[in-house]
Structure prediction request, 224 residues.
Amino acid sequence: MGFQGCDTAGTLLAWRGWALGDRLSLFGEMLPLPPLPTIQYGGPFGGQSYDGTSPFEELDGREGWQARAGWRHPNGISVVASHLDNRGDRALYDDEYAWATAYDQAGTTIDLGRGYTLAAEWMSGSTGMGPTTGTRVDADFTATYVLLGWRGEAWRGSFRWDDFEVEDRDQTAENNDDQGSAWSVAVSRSLGQEVDGDHAAAAMAGAPTSRQLDKLTVELRLVW
Prediction:
């Protein structure tokens, strides 16, 4: 599969480090970067936008690619693996760099029965920008998570462990090493929902035109 618009992948990962959250980034949005000396005015990467980085940009006109393969067993086991390469040329375009980013990714989901599901995913890759000699950024990164989830008639819960790392390889600019781990617990209970509606065309299909449903949902999340 070919794609475009992923040339800035690696910017936040190297210059800010890993982050966990449920935030959605949008096309055309600028995300802030830390005030590192190398990307300030007069630094070796001073051409980088002072406003931050846009996560969806096509800069060098080179199409990236991704290959995926998967397997699913009737007993509830599935495995998927992929390789992605954005083919960034590392050059500066106006005020953004095209990062050369590539990674391998593999994951599995296992149905343990009685409402329990085990999921795990691993990725490992590299990213870099700037000339291949002199001041530049070259870094390797890895991330892994394991999640155990449970779903009953009313209650749902999950326990997740994450481990992540960035290793600075160029030693020519700031130290981009980053390492950490996280534990997450989520619990939710469905108490009911109330819906009252009429749909006249349902009679043409032999279904009732009026429907009522009661449902209330309460959710609790603990993250540390």
The chain has one domain: 2-223. The mean pLDDT is 90. The first strand starts at residue 2 and ends at 3.
